[in-house]
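note to self — DONT lose this again. spent like an hour looking for the file last time. sequence + predicted structure for the chain T wanted, 593 res
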Amino acid sequence: MHRYRTQTCADLRASDVGQTVRLAGWVHRVRDHGGILFVDLRDHYGVTQCLADPDSPAFKDVEKLRSEWCIRIDGTVKARDAGLVNPKIPTGEVEVFIREVEVLGPAGELPLQVFGDQEYPEETRLRYRFLDLRREQMQRKMTLRSDVVRSLRQRMWDQNFREYQTPIITASSPEGARDFLVPSRLHPGKFYALPQAPQQFKQLLMVSGFDRYFQIAPCFRDEDPRADRSPTDFYQLDLEMSFVTQEDVFATVQPVIKGVFEEFGGGRKVDADWPLISYRDAALWYGTDKPDLRNPIKMQVVSEHFAGGGFGIFAKLLEQEGTQVRAIPAPKGGSRKFADRMNAWAQKEGLPGMGYIFWREAEGGAGMEAAGPVAKALGPERTEAIRTQLGLGLGDAAFFLGGKPETFEKIAGRARTVIGEELGLTDKDRFAFCWIVDFPMYEKTDDGKIDFSHNPFSMPQGGLEALEGDPLEVVAYQYDLACNGYELISGGIRNHRPDIMFKAFEIAGYPNSEVEKRFGGMVNAFRYGAPPHGGCAAGIDRMVMLLADEQNIREVILFPMNQRAEDLLMGAPSEPTPAQLRELGLRVVTEAK
């Protein structure tokens, strides 16, 4: 007999009755039923009910067992009485009569219980993550994550991609976040960086002739934490292809991602149609570049109906250059009560409120009338024009925000989300994807300078010629995939021409010498016959978060950092020893308080 087990705790069935077996696992719980002790024994695979009565030679040992002790049990498989069969577990027809118990690892007093669904503070869960991970829901989520990675790998191989590993210790690169720097012992005063992404290396692989690359790649970014973003490291499905257009990348990626969501989505609908939406249209219609298309609301510009009209706030605002008024349609939101609720929400967001119109039955039931302060100020003709443009009717409403778009787009997008949720318009049982395309190549920073707005290695649409005009009008072959309000993929067709690359970086304030210094390896490679190439990266953590129906990415990461980027289990970050600092030629300078 094996030293620890002959079966797992999920294996035994009615056909095993009468067999002598050995099981190993953790004591899930102990129950005393009138002198008969029941032990639910759990391992990674499942649970088996074991029991001992006073006639069992192991009864006194079983009496000593406590939750989460790691034990081995020898015993005989028995059939449960018909009335005691548990159809909720695979082993529910049988139980094991305990003849011998060996304690493999006793457990002290538990800071959190593994049995049950009790909620614990995140700090406790992260500090004792090894216990938290024993819980059924956590085992299920981490198994899902592993299965998703396996499926992604297989689907990439099926599309003739090969997996290659790129370096973890490398040079700093501007990927839009802060680097984690690694001091060099052999080169005092110089630093490596952990890669924010394998960007340059995967492009070099294309120059090297490998054609189709992918990797389940660890990435490291020193970022402020959010519910959907880790503050230190994450994993992505990274891929690159040679001799491709943007459409080729979309055609390759869609069956991979769609297949994974169909396989692990728990029966939720996965949209087959993935529309292409320009960045500017996404901002206009949804107030975000990662729209949730499960919500059918699409915002529209209604400035013409307010310009010179009786609603003075918006009429005066529209006299300023670059301003707009946008409407958020609210089908079935046509009541004063709902309008007041949305105004209260807007005030919590820091706005004085939102203008609104709602359409109700006219007094005496003679048709429909528009109600609210905006309708009264605008008059029936302009109000009717707004209703017609938005396609609204009786029982519907519209909310309005105005100003320069960059000042109100984000809050308008959040209002659209809230309205969709409040009115039950958002289809929760669905995964809705869309490609966001035509990202602006550059943006103006707060101090008025021009900088890259996204990935600096993307090809500008129109090539070198496009860079001769207004930088803020240049769009790149840059794209994101959004799903249910989250960015899942980011990618682009790469700038593989040194002349275009130098010009692109020059516009962003990087002289040729700086480009050569920071990206010399890649620029030099491009001088030796670089193929057109492109690709993308899909966030695995975020993908699993959606599939697991979680709101917080830490729920699908084995050992995550907390909100302050601290590892409470391992005690990171920690202070280096004086010897370590001396060896690296470093000293820590504390900030004056």
